[in-house]
Design goal:
The complex is a heterodimer of chains A (110) and B (118). With 110 residues, chain A is an all-beta fold. Chain A contains no helices and 9 strands. Chain B is mostly beta strands and 118 residues long. Chain B is globular. The chains are: A mainly beta (110), B mainly beta (118).
Chain lengths: 110, 118
């Protein structure tokens, strides 16, 4: 049960796009279309931003999108806004009723 | 509006026990699986346990298997986490969350803090 691998930090200027990666294996990210992404502001609970790789829950801006290639998933944030500054976590089903999270990426809006 | 309210956290000595509760409202609780996720201070999210909508034995992370037990009472719209043989590394904010599509967790409570220290 190894955690998924995310870069510890990412940054971009307002209006720019940034991509956060989430690397897994052929037993988790690569085997299931169950990657989710969560946004967490300091002191707050996580918020679901993307589910099933590409789907946005109601109310999430379309600036947020997801993709997957092989064993790596990505969260793309377009048109960065100051309020997008937060920690982002990916997760994936890993079989045998196990859920894995990534280590998290701190996104800074410069 | 979906609401999840956790309680039961606090200070406990190593080797001790604690029971967390999460009361749900705003949705049909008995039709949703429920999950506990924890976050150690300054660290990332860690899946702890999930229980299907119908109940049963639940699923556990290796780090807590044999020490923690998840349960639910659909008549009380509540899910519980019984934590035994607590260790320093179990110290964290514990969140309950609803199970969404594709193993996502779509609604989260505000969390309850568990501190394990002598």
């Amino acid at each position: 049960q190894s955690a998924l691998t995310q870069p510890p930090s990412a940054s971009g200027s307002p209006g720019q796009s940034v991509t956060i990666s989430c690397a897994g294996t052929s037993s988790d990210v690569g085997d299931y279309n169950t990657v989710s992404w969560y946004q967490q502001h300091p002191g707050k609970a996580p918020k679901l931003m993307i589910f099933e790789v590409t789907n946005r829950p109601s109310g999430v801006p379309d600036r947020f999108s997801g993709s997957k290639s092989g064993n790596t998933a990505s969260l793309i944030v377009s048109g960065l806004q100051p309020e997008d500054e937060a920690d982002y976590y990916c997760s994936s089903y890993a079989g045998n009723n196990i859920l894995l999270f990534g280590g998290g990426t701190r996104l800074t809006v410069l | 509006e979906v609401q999840l309210v956790e309680s039961g956290g606090g200070l406990v000595q190593p080797g001790g026990s604690l029971r967390l509760s999460c009361v749900a409202s705003g949705f049909t609780f008995s039709t949703y699986g429920m999950t506990w996720v924890r976050q150690a201070p300054g660290k990332g999210l860690e899946w702890v346990s999930t229980i299907p909508f119908s109940g049963g034995s639940g699923y556990y992370a290796e780090s807590v298997k044999g020490r923690f037990t998840i349960s639910r009472d659909n008549t009380k719209n509540s899910v519980y986490l019984q934590m035994n043989s607590l260790r320093a590394e179990d110290a964290a904010v514990y969140y309950c969350a609803t199970d969404g599509s594709g193993w996502s967790r779509d609604h989260w409570g505000q969390g309850t803090l568990v501190t394990v220290s002598s």
